[in-house]
Design brief:
The complex is a heterodimer.
Chain A: H1 24-32, H2 38-44, H3 53-68, E1 71-79, H4 106-118, E2 123-127, H5 137-150, E3 153-157, H6 163-172, E4 176-178, H7 186-192, H8 201-213, E5 218-222, H9 230-247, E6 252-256, H10 275-288, E7 294-296, H11 302-308, E8 315-317, H12 346-355, E9 359-361, H13 368-372
Parallel strand pairs in A: 1-2, 1-8, 1-9, 2-3, 3-4, 4-5, 5-6, 6-7, 7-8
Helix pairs in contact in A: 1-2, 2-9, 2-10, 3-10, 4-5, 5-6
Chain B: H1 9-19, E1 23-27, H2 40-44, E2 51-55, H3 62-76, E3 80-83, H4 96-108, E4 112-117, H5 121-129, E5 136-137, H6 151-160, E6 166-168, H7 174-183, E7 187-189, H8 192-195, H9 200-220, H10 239-244
Parallel strand pairs in B: 1-2, 3-4, 4-5, 6-7
Classes of the chains: A alpha/beta, B alpha/beta.
Chain lengths: 378, 245
């Protein structure tokens, strides 16, 4: 058994967690603060802030409109492989889950990309599990190259890599890397990651910094809500983002708020977050980080997604398939990583956005920017 | 007018018309090479008699902006380019060094270069010297709605500029646009202030009236403000005439 990881001083949220005992006056102060930070975030997530939900929502919407206008950026995930060597207690792809395993071969990847492109997307997020002999770095690099020929923006959500590997991904046309810490609580992290490379807390924590150092333009951070105390995790998330912004000022940060969904393995959330809790978290983070894109995936049910669009949330996926081969195959051979909550088609989802006075934006990036660096395929 | 951030193309076109804008800027990152519903070029095609100015928003350095400008010229058929280089994707403040470098190259290539720039009077003259067609200093940070926070620097830019000065970014209300024109600026560029308002088309029309009023006021000449002291009712220099008599 590995020793429990120590939390770096720059991440430690404990000085601000006193905010959990915040008073209504503290919440009002947080709402009126010119430069809110971890203390204000903790106050906005405290029980004292519950009566301020509407005020927080109004503020979140105003800030979202100010920075992102009446638009929602659209992206789609594409699952490349579901092989995994990790023992994450909460994941449907964990190595002890019995389900068919496969990876898409490059011609199949092209078919999936083509099927996705048909639906109008220009930004794709490629996902794999842990680094395995079946789906390692070279495989991922090849898939990024294929995707960069067809899509303007290509992101990767996979295992942590070395700086050199991230640089090679960037050269191949990868503009975004998503790497969730899952939970920043070292004790919970150690308990939930039963075996495998992912058990290395600090290696994962430093992954986003390596990606930024390597020239990846945007790094997505997040925690899996349900695994640990959400206030602890939220303050850590904010501190992690601030730390990265100080060291890597040319890179962008996006934040996601995935909640634990039913998946094979029947893991139950230790710290369940209900919809009101998730909404309050999004509002609070928007107030504290007004210019950071906040994402919401299809994990959530349609009515919730409809309500949150533009209310803090500025970027959304739609029509997602979480199984390997989910777009091109009528009946994929594998199960999805999690249960999709919003199964609406892309046109239906876009019609909803328009009805709410929001414009779905599929192209919000041009490959010319990556090609200018002398790399990529355009 | 900027063209991003609107809820739909119809509102965007309506707002541009209502604003009376002569130049609209469009982000290359929003332009599709294949026509699509959210492609900006298709909607902007409805606007006749308006100059289209691609911008390089998204570029982090000069080489990215130069490449984007060349592609923008191909796609939009316009020699105008708003050079916009903001390496920090969050506050979107312009990079003065990379902006100068890109402007130098693009002006030499024959582009009509209009750089989004910090409100820096020295940089303004440097950009003018390399052949920019106008200067586009920010009023305050993009999307901040803080108005003319850079007013003192804008006055220095205006005092020395030989090319048009257009306040870009940070404006929230028509009165701020009027103030910029009263000050002597030649135009303003707005997007969020219109697109994120309650009624974008009505707000665009309000900006149009404010810009007109500000321009008229500048031409008419504001009353002198002096140092803030009121004129004394008894002349302070009456004694001078005694000696001269």
């Amino acid at each position: 058994m590995t020793a429990q990881p120590r939390m770096p001083a720059w991440l430690d949220p404990s000085p601000w967690l006193d905010g959990r005992g915040a008073t209504p006056a503290d919440v009002e102060r947080a709402l009126g603060c010119d430069a809110p930070g971890p203390r204000e975030l903790a106050a906005l997530l405290s029980p004292a802030a519950r009566p301020f939900m509407e005020e927080m929502a109004q503020r979140a919407r105003a800030l979202t409109q100010r920075h992102f206008g009446r638009t929602i950026s659209m992206y789609a995930p594409l699952y490349l492989a579901n092989f995994c060597t990790n023992g994450c207690a909460y994941c449907g792809f964990a190595s002890d889950r019995v389900q068919p395993r496969r990876r898409l071969e490059p011609p199949e990847v092209e078919e999936e990309l083509a099927a996705l492109k048909e639906t109008g997307f220009e930004e794709v997020l490629l996902l794999t599990g842990e680094r395995t002999p079946h789906a390692g770095f070279d495989y991922l690099l090849e898939c990024v190259s294929l995707a960069a020929r067809m899509f303007h923006a290509v992101g990767v959500e996979a295992f942590p890599m070395t700086t050199r590997e991230y640089a090679l991904l960037a050269e191949a046309g990868c503009s975004g890397v998503t790497l969730y810490q899952e939970t920043y609580d070292p004790r919970q992290y150690d308990r939930l990651h039963r075996w495998g490379p992912k058990k290395d807390y600090l290696d994962r924590l430093d992954g986003p910094a390596r990606a930024m150092e390597a020239g990846i333009r945007t790094v997505g951070l997040g925690v899996l809500l349900g695994l640990s105390d959400p206030v602890f995790d939220a303050v850590c998330l904010l501190r992690h983002a601030a730390h990265l912004q100080r060291d890597h000022w040319k890179s962008g940060i996006t934040l996601s708020f995935p909640r634990l969904r039913p998946q094979s393995g029947n893991f139950s959330a230790t710290f369940p977050v209900d919809e009101a809790g998730l909404a309050r978290l999004v509002f609070a983070v928007r107030i504290v980080l007004p210019d950071v894109p906040l994402l919401l995936s299809t994990r959530e049910r349609p009515e919730f997604r409809d309500g949150m669009a533009g209310l803090g949330i500025s970027k959304m996926s739609a029509g997602s398939r979480t199984s390997v081969g989910g777009y091109g195959e009528a009946d994929p051979a594998t199960e999805g990583q999690f249960e999709v909550g919003d199964k609406r088609s892309v046109p239906d989802f876009c019609a909803m956005l328009r009805n709410r006075g929001l414009e779905p934006v599929f192209k919000n990036w041009d490959s010319v920017f990556r090609d200018a660096a002398g790399a990529g395929h355009g | 007018m900027g063209t991003g951030k609107f809820q739909d193309a119809e509102t965007m076109v309506g707002a541009v018309r209502a604003s009376g804008a002569q130049i609209v800027t469009v982000a290359l990152r929003r332009v599709g090479r294949n026509p699509r519903e959210d492609d900006m070029l298709g909607s902007l095609g409805e606007l006749k008699g308006i100059t289209l100015m691609p911008n390089t928003s998204g570029a982090r350095n000069a080489s990215e902006a130069i490449r984007a400008a060349r592609l923008g010229r191909e796609l939009c058929g316009s020699p105008f380019v708003k050079v916009e280089i903001h390496p920090n994707p969050h506050h979107l403040m312009p990079d003065p060094i990379e902006t100068f470098e890109a402007a130098t190259v693009l002006a030499a290539e024959g582009f009509v270069v209009m750089p989004y720039m910090p409100a820096d009077p020295v940089l303004a003259k440097r950009l003018e010297d390399v052949g920019c067609a106008s200067l586009m200093p920010l009023g305050s940070a993009i999307g901040s709605g803080r108005g003319l926070a850079t007013a003192e620097m804008l006055r220095l830019i205006l005092r020395d500029a030989r090319i048009p000065v257009i306040v870009d970014a940070g404006l929230r209300s028509p009165s701020e646009a009027a103030a910029a024109l009263e000050m002597g600026c030649d135009a303003v560029l707005v997007n969020s202030a219109v697109a994120a308002s309650g009624d974008p088309i009505a707000m665009a029309a309000a900006f149009a009236r404010a810009v007109g009023a500000g321009r008229d006021a500048h031409r008419a000449g504001l009353m002198p403000q002096g140092g803030g002291a009121a004129l004394a009712t008894s002349p302070l220099t009456a004694f001078l005439s005694v000696e001269g008599a």
